[in-house]
Amino acid sequence: MVNSIVEIAGLRVVRGGRVVLAGLDLDIGPGVTGLLGPSGCGKSTLLRSIVGVQRVAAGTVTVLGRPAGSRPLRDRVGYQTQSSSVYDDLTVAENLRFFARVLGLPPAVAEEALAAVDLGSHRDAVVGRLSGGQRSRVGLAVALLGTPALLVLDEPTVGLDPVLRRDLWALFHRIAAAGTAVLVSSHVMDEAERCDALLLMREGRIIAHGPPAEIKAAQGVDDIESAFLGLVEGGPA
Ligand SMILES: Nc1ncnc2c1ncn2[C@@H]1O[C@H](COP(=O)(O)OP(=O)(O)OP(=O)(O)O)[C@@H](O)[C@H]1O
């Protein structure tokens, strides 16, 4: 596909003796792409494969034209895991400066990331005393250090109230508009409408890929949850 950020061919992953991804083929383009599917379907495993931290049994994962996880991608791919990896006892600015140093980036990028997630006014707050939404934005800022070409976010809105979730999605779109492709997973189907493109996943397979409107139209339904059920039950495609 022209403009592909991620190209995956024949990806097979086995975890704990169980086949989690059984030969997955997929291209992901720019904009905000949502990876949606029920708990345990393999979303995190797919994201881990894209950032290059997952042992794969077979297949290839190419990111920005390079093998996933290879050295040239180190500061071109940002990754926010489900469990926050920021330090609770450091301030927001201290966390960002620390991770910038680890990545070998100048301190100025810490300021840019802080501004990008709108946390300038909380720069001197200790992370352990922030709200869930603010903490999530600190994690996002860490993933944004150095302005990566691809940002991979594993369930960044889990546990947040609807207002914070809406604000975070608006932020993802601002980040994408500035040129960073955003791949974000969720098991909340109502977040689907906020994506430019959707990947619907079930039991380690991608069962639909495209703009939300196209997926709904193909199933003849008005919401993504119904489209998902239609696809699972073998409705029109
Ligand atoms: N460390 C692990 N060792 C062995 N199996 C694992 C491990 N982590 C996950 N799995 C298995 O791999 C499968 C896919 O898990 P994965 O975390 O990718 O799903 P997910 O869709 O991201 O789920 P969730 O939405 O709950 O985070 C699950 O069946 C899970 O039991």
User: Secondary-structure element order, as H and E?
Assistant: EEEHEEEHHHEHEEEHH
What is the global morphology? Answer: globular
- Sequence stretches where pLDDT stays below 50 over 5 or more residues: none
Strand order of the largest sheet: 6-7-8-3-9-10
| Oligomer classification | single chain
Head-to-tail CA distance between termini: 22 Å
As a percent range, the share of strand residues is: 25-35%
Q: Count the beta strands.
A: 10
The small molecules bound here are:
adenosine-5'-triphosphate
Would you tell me the structural class of the helices and strands? alpha/beta
Radius of gyration: 18 Å
Number of helices: 7
Relative helix content: 25-40%
Largest sheet: 6 strands, mixed
Description:
The chain is of the alpha/beta class and 237 residues long. It has seven helices and ten strands. It has helices spanning 43-51, 92-102, 108-116, 132-144, 162-177, 212-219, 224-232; strands at residues 6-15, 18-28, 32-36, 58-63, 66-67, 77-80, 150-153, 181-186, 197-202, 205-210. The strands form two sheets. The chain has a six-stranded mixed beta sheet, with helices on both faces. β1 (6-15) and β2 (18-28) form a beta hairpin. α2 crosses α3, α3 (108-116) packs across α4 and α6 (212-219) crosses α7 (224-232). The protein is globular and about 55 Å long. The two termini are 22 Å apart. The model has no long low-confidence stretch (mean pLDDT 90). Bound molecules: adenosine-5'-triphosphate. It holds the Pfam family ABC_tran. GO terms for molecular function: ATP binding. Keywords: ATP-binding, Nucleotide-binding.
